[in-house]
Amino acid sequence: MAISLSFDDARTSSPVNGIPLLNEYDVDATFYIVPDNARKNLPGWKAGVKEGHEMANHSLYHSCSGNFGWPRYALEDYTIDRMRAELDSTNSEIETLFGVRPVSYAYPCGQTTIGKGMNSQSFIPLISEMFLTGRLWLSEAPVDPWYCDMAALTGMKMDNTDFDEILPLIQAASEKGQWLILAGHETGDSGNQTTYLSMLRQLCEYANDPVNGIWIAPVGTVGKYVHKKRVQMLDSINIPKITYAGGYGELVLHAINGKGVGPEIKYMPEWEAFGWFTAKDYVEWDVEVELPGLYKVELEWSVSDEEAGKNYILMAGDKKLKSKVKKSGSWETFKKENIGQIHLNKGYQKIIFRPSKDFGKGALLDLRKIKLTLIN
Fold first, then answer.
1. Which of 144, 169, 182, 226 minimizes the number of CB atoms within 10 Å of its CB?
2. What is the pTM of this model?
3. How far apart are the two ends of the chain, measured CA to CA in Å?
4. Which helix (H) or strand (E) holds 365?
5. How confident is the model over 204-238, as pLDDT tens digits?
6. Whole-angstrom distance, CA of residue 340 vs CA of residue 337
């Protein structure tokens, strides 16, 4: 597993209390900076940069919802262009102050929405465009490194907690190989929004013990590793995700993005395909259809001549397309062929591919891709 320690707002206690303690254990953390706050102790923050700590973006004015009553600028009054300009200014100020360009961002108050009512919108896409990572606040689960949205990483509270309260989070994340991002503010022995030094000391000792198998590093460092690994393994890890229409309403259902359900179905990365052996196995895709209408269906599959001929069905809501698995030549030979037409309704739906009959022994096929092209 990985642990990242992060602290928000550039509180003055961090260079005085938190950074020296972390340095004792050679642990680097991420500090989300509001530039005006950092100027209150520039020498301390600059020393932190030299010691390896990450300086990240926490906005120009710490803008949150106007419902709090105290924000200098309320998120309800922002547009995407205004947010972009302020984030860019913050990056430039941090670079001027510390000589580093931020790659990480934390949402002030954990809030990701700007505007009101019909004009309300998420600025997570903007963070995805401008930064490697974006971190939330008061989350309830660690980060799944394969599934997560890098622009909306979960951040779990460590303020005003003892190590005995943090340890179960670490142990649960360790069992699943997850990334635990802990978020705090002040560093000291007491006080509101304070990460206790006693807890921090115990956590660093625990994380540094090789027996516990923990990598502790800044958010940006772990984020770069996760991004690199996800790119390297893009074609080998089956991660179901929603499929959106491409040009001219075309939908391409790749096996790697489908969800295999059943007792024996298996995604085979070497073939980029699902293979299954019982009538109880099936694959489903979450799909957002932009243009309703009749779609031509192209199947890409392989099967041995001996196993060909079994029945299957493609379902989209109450619409069905039935056919038989034709020969492709061998399990290693993938073939593409139009198998018919199906009507798709507009909006979100599930598309399911499965055997239409119990075929007893043997195998159905290896399914790599289904392409649906709008006819009219």
1. 144
2. 0.85
3. 50
4. none
5. 999 999 999 999 999 999 999 999 999 888 778 88
6. 9
